[in-house]
Amino acid sequence: MQINKKIKSCVSLVVFFIITSMVVQVFASEWMTFQKDETRNGFLAETISIPLKKSIEINIGDELSGSLLVFGNQLFFTTLNGIVGSCDLISSEIIWKRSLSEPIISSATLSNTEVYVTTESGNVYCINNKTGSILWMKALNDEVRAPLLKVFRFVYVASMSGKIYAINMLDGNITWMADLKEPISQAISLKLNALYVVTNKGQFACIDSQDGRVLWSYSVNAAITTSPISGTEAINFGDEKGQFYSFDYATGRLYFQTNFNQPFRSSLCFAYYDRRVICGGLNNQYVGIISGKGTEMWSYPSSATNVSPVSIGRWVVVQGNNQTLAILDSFDGKEVDSQPIGSDITAGMAISNGIVLVGTKKGQILGFSSQSGDFQVDLLTEIQIISPGESAAYDVNIVSTPNFKEAVMFSVQGFPCSCKGVSRYFENPTIIPPGKTKLFVDTTEDAEDARYDIRIIAYSGKEIKRETIGTLIIQKSKEKAIAKVTKKSSFVAGQDISVELSVQDSPSIRSFSSILSYSTDTVFLKDIVAGSFFTGSQDNLTIDKVQIPQSGKVILGITKKDTTDSGSGLIFTLIFHTIKPGEAYIRFDKVSARDTFLWEKAFLSESLTETILPGKQKKIVLTINKKEAFIDQNRVMLDAPPVIQNGRTLVPLRFLGENLDATVEWDAKEQKITMTQFSKVIELWINKSYCLVDKVRQELPSSVPPKIMNSRTFVPLRFVSETLNAEVQWDDKKQTITVIYPK
């Protein structure tokens, strides 16, 4: 009997460890993302050398809000005016950017594949982090200022009415709702399976994260002004009276409270290697607090203490005086480095791969990295999808500062030790950057279907660790779906043409999104019409269409909220106008297709390149000082005749614009003319000898400006016509002007 009991115990332990390893494999990558979410204000196991220098400057053009978030080498941002977007930290290029049309004050949060954002009025968005397409939106009709929290399958949203919503991340449905009946503007904290929430009136509550039951609550009789952060045994926060509290996270018992005699202005963060220090901003200083006792270790004066500090190794980063970024030794509070920013920080700081990132009021994202030598690692191919027996090769690029000459070694994480039929190795496991290597993944025929979120990690002799993130999908099905752009009519200049975006050979798509780019010099996107991708009921369908005409890009997406539905076939029909003869392309920059559980599917894409043939040209003939004109030999009468001033011909504005496919807007207050032809915009001012063409200043020929004569607006003929892709011919003897459009 004793032997049987021992056998049963051993079997139980084996089963427990198998289940635990499966859970860890599913959630480990999301947990790493959670730990790096700066809205949580946790300690980061990063490495960085002092002093710093500015290495990244990305101009967003709008005041940054919330927090900056980083996943791999991709950074996500929000702005006060409702913009959400993504940047590449290696190239400093904006990957996608879109407007949600109302202010964003709350901080966004991330999973591996989505970014979750809420506007001030409580519209919660789930956005594909690869393409920027909206997968679902939930309207709470409840003001939201507190940062979001994403843990496993839930997004937690706290509102100014005191409600906390647990939203299912797959479909946006509310799983449960709790009501503390007091405004909440601070971030929620998670410890084990409980949520810790503080209110603006001083309530501190513990809520079961699975069902929303309030387990206990406590009142401190003052507005709590910091987000709660959790240590090994305690939850800590500060209030408007300068009180610092430490509570037992299990029972709500107060361990201690310390009076700092100044209001807490920023959230707190753990600092130093073993988290023994807590740092936070008071009214006019940052302080270091011994986490287990609550006593002050040091203080650092600052005029901008509302910015939450972040910690990296032994350093803590804060906003210093005179719009600077200050690096402090978290053990004694001494300033070890300071960098000018030139603006106030308005978005919570982020630290990733040795780069300190801040968002400013001027609309800039600035990155600071080590002057003493550093390197970054980037994965050029993010997603590989193979069948058993096939191999995948990831191209890994390493960039470095000129003075970095140390050897860098590589390893990879994300594969369980027991993954059947899978082996991996690096082409060059050690290199001196800059340079490239490859990660090879080989599979045998008996490899099982699996999805691995892999981390490629690079180490140097100075103990610098940098990483990048990719995905490997192994599936037995040989079927690979194809996203295609196909033409439905001939490409002839001056005509409307249609192309279809469709999916073939894929029976189970719940969500499809893409970023398409097109040649703005030869085609203009006029309209987008949704197709019949999902058959049956069209309820719970999210169709997303975002045109960015100046950059020649469009974000397209379609998602079915019902997990049982899937689509295939025509997604969108795009109507383009062909501007002029030449080569036109409509291509996929990014493609994301998701199955029922919003996992990426195997996908190929086929773009379109076509030659636009010459079409019929419009011929406009005008005569100086005559109202009579001809359009393709058809006689028309002008409101006012063309005139010559300083050797330049001026013609009636609206007649010219309407015949060159341009819309005309008049601003009487500024005396400003705006002519828009497809994606080209010309801005002119009455009696001003310069203009803006696509926001770039240009001087008008012979300094002849637009004028108002006899209550009619006249513009320079040749300059406007040629800018709008027309050819101008002058017959001096007949005093006639011939405009050929398009040229």
Question: Can you offer a commentary on this structure?
Answer:
The protein is mostly beta strands. Among the domains are: 377-474, Immunoglobulin-like, CATH 2.60.40.2310; 481-612, Sandwich (Immunoglobulin-like); 618-741, Copper Amine Oxidase, Chain A, domain 1 (2-Layer Sandwich). 6% of the residues lie in helices and 52% in strands. It has 3 helices and 66 strands. The strands form 15 sheets. A 5-stranded mixed sheet has the order 1-27-28-29-30, with no helix packed on it. A hairpin with a 5-residue loop joins strand 21 and strand 22. Mean pLDDT is 88; it is low at 11-44.
How is this fold's topology laid out?
Layout: H1 2-35, E1 43-44, E2 52-59, E3 64-71, E4 74-79, E5 83-88, E6 94-99, E7 109-110, E8 114-118, E9 123-128, E10 134-139, E11 149-151, E12 154-158, E13 163-168, E14 174-179, E15 189-191, E16 194-198, E17 203-208, E18 214-219, E19 229-230, E20 234-238, E21 243-248, E22 254-259, E23 269-271, E24 277-281, E25 285-290, E26 296-301, E27 310-312, E28 315-320, E29 324-329, E30 335-340, E31 345-352, E32 355-360, E33 364-370, E34 375-379, E35 383-386, E36 391-400, E37 408-413, E38 422-426, E39 430-431, E40 435-443, E41 450-460, E42 465-474, E43 481-487, E44 496-504, E45 511-518, E46 523-530, E47 541-548, E48 553-560, E49 569-578, E50 582-594, E51 603-606, E52 608-612, E53 618-623, E54 628-631, E55 634-637, E56 643-645, E57 648-652, H2 653-659, E58 663-667, E59 672-677, E60 680-685, E61 690-693, E62 696-699, E63 707-709, E64 712-716, H3 717-723, E65 727-731, E66 736-741
Parallel strand pairs: 1-27, 35-42, 43-51
Antiparallel strand pairs: 2-33, 3-4, 4-5, 5-6, 7-8, 8-9, 9-10, 11-12, 12-13, 13-14, 15-16, 16-17, 17-18, 19-20, 20-21, 21-22, 23-24, 24-25, 25-26, 27-28, 28-29, 29-30, 31-32, 32-33, 34-36, 36-40, 37-39, 37-41, 38-40, 41-42, 43-44, 44-49, 45-48, 45-50, 46-49, 47-48, 50-52, 53-54, 53-66, 54-55, ...
